[in-house]
Structures are given as structure tokens and as C-alpha cells.
Design brief:
CATH topology of the largest domain: Bactericidal permeability-increasing protein, domain 2
Number of helices: 9
Mean pLDDT: 86
CATH superfamily of the largest domain: Bactericidal permeability-increasing protein, domain 2
Distance between the termini: 13 Å
Shape: elongated
Number of strands: 22
Helix content: 10-25%
Length: 477
């Protein structure tokens, strides 16, 4: 049961550590859902489970009987609702199951003196109680770790019915078998629970806490500190920083700590700092990828200005005289790292860019003409609707400044005016159309977010959500 709860946590990741850029909170509602899902999974899989053979010998007063119970399978399982709770004393979980009953069947064989016999049996294991506690921790590499702290199992009673062979001889001596069989079953329960936890620990250690998201960026998701367990929740802090794969350099800005509010009405809460997005922005910037070359074929036909010296001459009168009838190209690039800012219900983005213009000579040579610094500010809203991340954006301001000119000085007032009129149109027609359609929320291998709500707070955004699990044998092994 406990491994199942931890898998729920992972399908979604020193007491003092570095501040996390991503925070995860698992609530009591998640535990309630997880134990219900795990109960169904355990019920289904127990009914197909095979038990190890049980063998031994017993003195029945008339001599010693060697016995073996083989091919033991479960035919029915009555699994009561387990109790799962956060356990702050050990920074983990505590699970209790009371009154578990299992019906089994298999084959028996006995050796009593010169008598060798065999047949089948039906067994009922009644009123099994199991109490287990698991501690959560953090290994040196930042993986989530799990370890069994305690386990106690008690078997209430065992009833055995022998069939076939000379079973009528041994049936009266069932009481002699019951205690031994009960002890055998009881002593196997906790080692089986602990074996599951060891397997889960191996699975967690094999998971990547840093991985490449594309050819440019890697994402570091190691735990920044020990898990924090309260009576109603579990809180994990993750590094949440993107890096340029080649340089792995730190950005020139620091993470600001934030407090993610706990929402008991949802299974999980996820807090994402603006630092995470800005670290991705820095990764692309430091890789030299925030630039583009633009030629006239990329300008929409309906645009009143095209990339040639004649058309741009409306802003720079001397240009068509110096370079008559030549096509032009633009190199657009970021002068500084684009920076996101999360404010209450608003996401802001500041862009400090530049545009360097060239005239393309008949022989293909590009002659530099001028360079403009273009600084712009955008603001937008994001939300979750119908399982999609959606949004809208608008330009708040744009300014142009002549940074360099190879064609002499000229006024940029008219150009700046047209840019202020044209950019909002492009944003509305293209960017907002895409944002209105939205993006499907990411799915993890065995989990999907449902009933999700997104809120933008000062310095971070928070997603409060329920989770739908798709537990499989592979998912829990």
C-alpha cells in the first residue's frame, strides 16, 4: 500500500537546503484517492498471486508427519479499506490494514512413516492485520528515498480442508498444522512488504533527476532538501532550473523564495517560480539562439512596408538614393536575457532586442545600413480550461532607438509609430490565436491532471489539481 502512495507522488519527485524553484504538495485528498486505487490494484493482483511452498514436519503424538503445501494460489481476497496517514514523527507514511481475509487453494503431500500421500486443499487465512511505516528521505544525488521503518503482521486464524488421498486420516489433525502454517504465513508478510519497498527504492534511485529536454537545455529536478511531512500534507522542494547543456552556467539572477499555499480541496499543488522560466530564457540566450534572420519573403503580402530600400525609404529618405532598388535583410537578436515576471494574475515579459539592417548587393554581399535598439514590454494572462493551458497577451510598450547608422542620421518617430500600430495586430492575429486554442496539459506515464486550476501570484504560478492514476503491474514494479 505504501509503495503505491509513493508512486502517486513520484508520477506527478540536511533539513536546510537551497531554495526550490518548484514545490510539490501532496494532500490528504491524494492519500484517500491513492489508497482507494491501490486497494483495487492489490485486490486484482492478489487474486493472481502465487505463494511460496510451505513445508515442514509436525509431531501429532503418534509420530512425525513431514508435509508440503505447493502450488498455493489465492482464489478470493477480502481486503478492507486500508488506513493511510501522514506520519510526521518519521517523515513518512503509516499504513494499517485490519481484518484482511484470503482464501487459497493448492496441493498437499505428506510423508508419515511408510505412508506417502497427496491431494488438494482449501485454506482460509482470517483476520490478518498489517501495520507498516515508511520513511521518506533524500539521497546525496537528490533522489527521493524510501525505507521501511517498522512492520507488524498478525494472522488471526487459519482453516484448512484437505481433499483426496488419505486426507480423512489427516483432517482430524488440522489443529496441529494450523499453528505452524499460520506462523509460516505470518513471518512471510513483512519481508514481502519490505521487499516491495526495496524494489521501489531501486526504482527511485534509477530515475533521472536531471535530463535533457532538447538539444539545448537540460532540466535539474533534484530534491533541494528533505521532504517535509505534516499531519495533512507532504511538501517536496525541487531545484527546477534549466541549464545550457554545453556551458551549464548559472544565470545572472537569483531565485526568490516563495511559499506555496496548501489547498486541501485538491490532491496536489504545484508551485513554479518565475526563476524556472527565466533560467530557460538564459539557457537559450547563452546558446546564442535568441536571434533570427528575416528577409522579404517572410513579410506578409498585405504589409504596407517590405524589405527593400525603396519601401523602407519612407522612413529614411537617403536610403533609396544611396542604395537604389536593393532588397534588404534584417538580423533580429536579443541584447539582454528576456525576463519573465509573475505578478498577481499577470505574467509580464520584458524584451531588450536589436535589429540590424543590411542591403543585399547584386553579388550577394550584405552591406550594413543601421542598427536599432528595440525595447518592448508585454503582459498576459494564463489559465487552464478543458484540460488545456490557454492565455492571451498584449503589448504594453515599445521604444526604438537608433544605435548606429552607416547611412547618416534619420528620425525614427514615424517608424516607431508604425511599429506600435503593427505589432499589436500581429500579436492579436497570430499569437493570441495560438494561445486561445491552448496546449494540452502534459501527461505523465501513469497519471493525468484533472480539474486543474492555475493562479499567478507574486513571483510564482500555482497549479492546484486532482490526479487520475492508471496503475499497472509495470507502474508499481
Amino acid at each position: 500500500m505504501l509503495p503505491s502512495v509513493v508512486v502517486l507522488l513520484m508520477l506527478l519527485s540536511s533539513t536546510c537546503g537551497e531554495d526550490p524553484a518548484i514545490q510539490l504538495i501532496l494532500t490528504n485528498k491524494a492519500l484517500s484517492y491513492g489508497k482507494a486505487q491501490a486497494k483495487d490494484w492489490i485486490q486484482q493482483n492478489l487474486e493472481h498471486a502465487h505463494f511460496p511452498d510451505i513445508s515442514g514436519n509436525i509431531d501429532i503424538g503418534l509420530g512425525s508427519v513431514d508435509y508440503a503445501l505447493t502450488g498455493i494460489t489465492i482464489t478470493k481476497c477480502d481486503l478492507p479499506e486500508p488506513s493511510v496517514e501522514f506520519y510526521p514523527d518519521i517523515t513518512g507514511f503509516k499504513t494499517s490494514i485490519y481484518g484482511l481475509s484470503i482464501a487459497l487453494t493448492g496441493g498437499w503431500s505428506t510423508h508419515y512413516g511408510l505412508i506417502h500421500d497427496s491431494g488438494s486443499f482449501d485454506m482460509a487465512v482470517l483476520d490478518v492485520n498489517v501495520i507498516s511505516a515508511v520513511e521518506l528521505g533524500k539521497d546525496p544525488d537528490g533522489h527521493l528515498s524510501v525505507s521501511s521503518i517498522s512492520c507488524d503482521a498478525q494472522v488471526g486464524d487459519v482453516d484448512v480442508q484437505f481433499h483426496g488421498g488419505a486426507s480423512w486420516i489427516f483432517q482430524p489433525f488440522v489443529d496441529f498444522f494450523k499453528e505452524r502454517i499460520s506462523d509460516e504465513i505470518q513471518k512471510r508478510i513483512c519481508p514481502s512488504v519490505e521487499e516491495m519497498i526495496v524494489k521501489l527504492e531501486s526504482h527511485l534511485q534509477a530515475m533521472n533527476v536531471s535530463f535533457d529536454v532538447n538539444q539545448v537545455l537540460s532540466l535539474d529536478l533534484h530534491l533541494t532538501s528533505l521532504p517535509v511531512v505534516a499531519s495533512t500534507s507532504l511538501n517536496l522542494g525541487l531545484k527546477g532550473e534549466f541549464y545550457n547543456i554545453k556551458t551549464h552556467s548559472e544565470p545572472p539572477f537569483k531565485l526568490k523564495s516563495f511559499t506555496l499555499p496548501e489547498q486541501q480541496g485538491y490532491m496536489v499543488s504545484v508551485g513554479l517560480s518565475e526563476f524556472t522560466l527565466n533560467s530557460a530564457s538564459y539557457g537559450y540566450y547563452s546558446a546564442g539562439l535568441l536571434q533570427a534572420d528575416i528577409n522579404d519573403s517572410m513579410i506578409p503580402p498585405y504589409c504596407p512596408v517590405h524589405l527593400n530600400t525603396t519601401s523602407v525609404g519612407r522612413y529614411i529618405p537617403q536610403l533609396p538614393k544611396l542604395f537604389p532598388g536593393l532588397p534588404m535583410s534584417l538580423k533580429v537578436y536579443a541584447r539582454e536575457v528576456p525576463v519573465f515576471s509573475f505578478q498577481s494574475d499577470v505574467v509580464k515579459l520584458g524584451l531588450q532586442g536589436a535589429v540590424k539592417a543590411f542591403a543585399i548587393q547584386p553579388n550577394g554581399t550584405q552591406t550594413p545600413l543601421f542598427t536599432l535598439n528595440v525595447d518592448s514590454d508585454f503582459s498576459g494572462k494564463i489559465w487552464i480550461s478543458d484540460g488545456r493551458l490557454k492565455g492571451s497577451v498584449k503589448m504594453d510598450n515599445v521604444t526604438l532607438k537608433l544605435a548606429a547608422s552607416e547611412v547618416g542620421t534619420f528620425s525614427i518617430d514615424a517608424m516607431e509609430k508604425d511599429v506600435r500600430l503593427g505589432v499589436p495586430v500581429v500579436v492579436s492575429l497570430k499569437v493570441n490565436k495560438i494561445l486561445d486554442e491552448g496546449f494540452v496539459l502534459p501527461k505523465i506515464k501513469q497519471a493525468q491532471l484533472v480539474n486543474s486550476v492555475l493562479k499567478v501570484e507574486e513571483g510564482f504560478m500555482a497549479v492546484f489539481s486532482d490526479v487520475e492514476l492508471f496503475l499497472t503491474d509495470e507502474g508499481l514494479n
